[in-house]
Design brief:
It is built from one helix and five strands, in the order ββαβββ. It has 53 residues and is mainly β.
Length: 53
Amino acid sequence: MAEEFLDLVDENDNVIGVDSRANIYREGKGNNIRVINILLFNSKENYLCQKGR
């Protein structure tokens, strides 16, 4: 699997750097990162989730 990189941001959401997800969480930098989470629901209001490979 490819390494994932995330933006490091300041308190005003300005990008101040980039680091790998693994390194961010290993070093405790996870307080100021920019990520997007998307939740999908079908018409029956069931949560749809992606299965792992």
